[in-house]
Protein 1
Amino acid sequence: MKKLLPLLCTLALAGCQQTLTLPSATVLASDSLGGLASSVAAHASVEAVAPLAFVLTPESAGFLQALTTTAEPQRIALANRLKADSTITSAITNWSRAGAAGRLAVLQRVATIEGEVMHCQVPTVKEEASTTAPSGMLAFFQAESGGLGEITIYSNAIASGGGYLALSMVIHEMRHAVQYQLVSGDQTKLTADEKTLATGYRTAWETVNALGGESKLSYGDYVHLAVEFDAFQAGNQVATLMSGGTFDQRGSGFVDTQYVTAGTPNLDLTTMLGNFTTSELTGAVNLAQAKAEPARSPVVSRQRPVVTRGGRAGR
């Protein structure tokens, strides 16, 4: 996001000149952390500042419904396409023997198929072999004014992470390309659900700009930005379906971006939004996360776009 966010402001998106103020760093009474460290947990006091930018708010119900009706069928279709591709399935299951060129080629192939399924023009997918990846980072998407942007993959990092992690990563980053094209494209050609999604993505990017950068957010609030929640879900759901449930999602977002074998989320926010306040939602999600990953470090994430905080990548 480091280079993506200023670019979005050049697209004349409303609100980029705003300066929002986060609550005090002190945990507020509305912030039920569920046993998580404040740097890891989601905060009701933060998400209430811009309720359309985050998904743990009642105001995000329309966005989550649009994800369910639009993005989820695409994820399932993508998993089916990938499972039917013997070149991809062979490389993923024999990841350590694929070689650097083979790994890059298969991830480029995954990106191409995702573009077809999700109606997205595919950005360049390239590798970075000469630079050590920032702590925990596998790849990033970088937008480009007037172009498709590019996905950069740290080849040394993905070599040791396993095939399903690499698969999840490139799907995550391609989802950011989908988001960017929805926001920057002709809004008159979008369906109602696509317009709802584009509004959520746009608002999330604007909000991070107005807050002074992603470094202002805890990991839990970062994960629950509309753009990141969608991308985490996409990578996790497809990799879970592809692997038959063997993909280890721990550390990949929060429990509400992770999936069981059948593709059902471990914690389904769409069943909760009508009955809970933002404070109750963040508290419930934090508690579920603490129970699911009690030993989780706040610096284990591995997939995300470039952002202002090095090493706090998105898996």
Protein 2
Amino acid sequence: MKENLMQKLFTLFFCVLLSSNAFALYNSAGLPDSAEIRRTIIDSWLTAPLDELKDKKNLVKENEIGISFEVRLEEYEDHFDIVVAPEKTITLEVISNGKKSVSETKSYPVTAPGSWVLHRSNVTGEPLYIDWYFVQDSEICAQFRAENKKTFADMKVYSFYAARSVPMGIPFERLYSASFENVYKWTSKTLPWKKVMPVLGQYELSKITSEIIRAQLPKMNYLEDACYNEHEELYSISTAKKYEVKDEQKIDYDKINLCGAGFVKYIIDGLVVPYSENGEGTRIIDMAKPTVVLESLSKSGVASQIWDLSFTLDWCRNLAVSSLAARSIKTAAPGYSSVDVTVENFSSEYVDGKMQNTAGYIPDNGYSIAALKSLMYVLGVTEPSYMYLAAIRQPVKNLDGIYAYNECALLIPYFDDKGRFVCVVFEKNKETSFDDFIKEYGDSYIHLERVKTSEYFYPMKYEESTSH
């Protein structure tokens, strides 16, 4: 009896030991881990001279829970890499003689989640830095650098750094055999992991909202200065009166007629009306209220006496506040600070091979468009189920140094079921790709207003409109 009990206890202890090892190899982040493999190749690969590595064939090894990794050499002009990358199965569809067949092939992408890459100098052979990939996006990674016998950590989000030169307090070589779980614990308070690692399952409303808007786009016609008032009547934004058709304008009475600003109002009204006691949307006159005070004697202040330099910023801010107020149980109206995105997530930017400090958020100006992709990624992680009204601040032609908010758009960031980052962009009644949007406004600034998505989202349908 005692022997059976001892056997059971030993078996239980052995299972716990195995499960703890498995946890180290396949950690709480769900990443395939190569720690055990790297421990066996320190002399033969990680610290071996380049001349020896050139003669080696790619090595495929399994970790203790059966995940295969490929160890290989990749050479470049000024450095060489030792790649330890997990196996990934790629499904290919092949069409031959009119017949479609599906085949699977195995690969070991250098930027796959769980991939570990050691960069070394091809002159001295000394270690330079390690890239550790942990999400589906290949441009997001943790970097660890060896400098003056010290180890520093960076967190890279596209070309921007969410953390730079964070001291590790460990020898660089310790990273050769460390598991991802080890590194996460060592840097849990110093690297912004929670800003870059999405928690899936929180983005259903963002996806549904995108689909609802997308379904409405074919029913829309672009019409300058046009939007719908709180009673869904076609009005002019500039006059806040019923829309009067001019000879050169083309109004399609079989569609919803909107300009760019009218389009984002249409979206917000779809969120406001379900919460409105009287079933009304936002009022044009309220959305156009100024939110920016310029110094009267400044260059912009003088120009603002002739042109409206802050139109879409005022418009987007007021719309976002209206959406927040409609859902709020508080009697006091929320302020602009409740909806303005002013986060400072990045310390520096990598431009043309050089590191430079980034300005971040500038009051009433927003962010440089160059930071938008990195910013939206982090917002997608940290503010799930939010979308953003974007007021675009562009240089005014023939007016040196003067910028104006004339355009606006709607951005909806989320992560799909496989953890891939998506940012849907709607502008002027159309959907455009995120990359094309960034290129189009490359010399601009962008000011963001956060808006919570809702299961109660009912944008106006054509048949409900009074456009004619």
Protein 3
Amino acid sequence: MPDLHMHTLVVRDHVVSCLDPDIIQHSKGHDAIQLDLDAEWDGLDVSIVMVGPDYKAVEVLYTGEPVTIPASVCEDTRWLPVGIVGYGDGGNVRVLTARADRLLKVVPSGPFEGGEPIPDPPDVLGQLLEARDEALEAAERAEQAAEHAESVKRGTQVSVTDGRPTIGGIEGDSAIDPVTGQFWEFVDDGTSASE
């Protein structure tokens, strides 16, 4: 896979700047955003929000790794509005950057032969739904493993003991005292063994 073309957005005192603002129109899976945030963003859940040509906001969760710019926002030549949002304290805190409508720019591409579009990465809701589905699958696998472990039973056992056994077992287990020849079998009636 080729290297991503990185657009580093620097955020200082809620103002966003970028040294490489041009994104080539029709690019797919090649341009990415990396954030350089000041200390105000420490401990927050951060998202990058871009406004598509249909004026619909596209929000992508930022986890510290570069975020691929969705192809849908690169189809038309135009300024690409972008903002950074941070949430904390269970949603009681929201930190925003100042408006940046003319920070990134989609510039005209050279000619190319069309092809199948690369699907955009999921938005924040899609990412959360994927995480939920993965957690549900993991819980289901754990439940199946627990059911399997419960269904696997050991066979009955015979123990050698000195007198009447003092610990339980499972129904069908037995114990024998080699000195007296006394034989006990475990029964599941609340007692440890019966003669």
Protein 4
Amino acid sequence: MRNRIILLLLALMPLTLVAQSYTVYSVVGTARWHNGKTMVPLKARKVLSDNTKLQIGEESAVTVIDEKNAKMYSFTSAGTNTVADLIKGLKGNTKSLSKQYLSYVIKQLFSDDSEKMSHPNTYMQATATAYRSSSNDSLLLNQLGRHFAIDGPIDKSVESTLVDPDADPDTDYDVEFELIDCATGLPLGEQIAPNTSCYLRVTNQTTELLYMNLLDIDRQGNKYLVLPMDAAATCAHLLVPAMSTVSFKKEPFIFGDEPSEETLLLMAVREPVDFSIVMDHIKTGGKSTMRLGLNRRFYQVK
């Protein structure tokens, strides 16, 4: 009888060992998970099961990693659902990961640097050198130079072309953004009152999961990267799922109190990149195989 009990226990063990789990990669907007009788804010690194209930807010996104199947899933359905139901309802927003890239993502996700955020006001080269090579950063600069092809004097900078309303850059991805007034919840027009606070709302109209950031540059060439970069350059907090609209309400910013002309440029790429490289002088020349989505808007503070 004892042997039969042992055999039964051994037969049941694999069912426990293969229980599915998912690691939270990023949360954009608001999301909570059901912990007993309470709902707890969801954060990166949290491990979920198929039966975990998630409550996702409007214009929010949760991306999880399935290590067993080497996949990444993004959830954007507002409301309360189990992880299993969210996965069943996915029609897109699934990305297969190579073993090398999966290993890199997990390593960086649990790095202490993944929680260190900064808004660079000078060029900052991130320390991450594993899978995301610095060559990707150079590709971003090269592709920006290619999209903003320079006409006129040879010494004209890419930055001066970038703020020129007559320059019409093309884009590799269908992406859009708008600035939302924190006070009214409405999109801002081209003319903005001084000291207006707002946040970024982004729409990804492609079938790709894209990493995005917003560059602000004024007529004097001063630059500001709107969304912070993590020191590990995972860009997890910058991921916008396919065919979705998300709002970065946790990263509001404020316009100054002096009259100014501001050009804001949305940048979107498929793989993590150190967006802070655009704080450096954008050079032309060089080859680029990187696809880059762009959307530009002009604002006047007065």
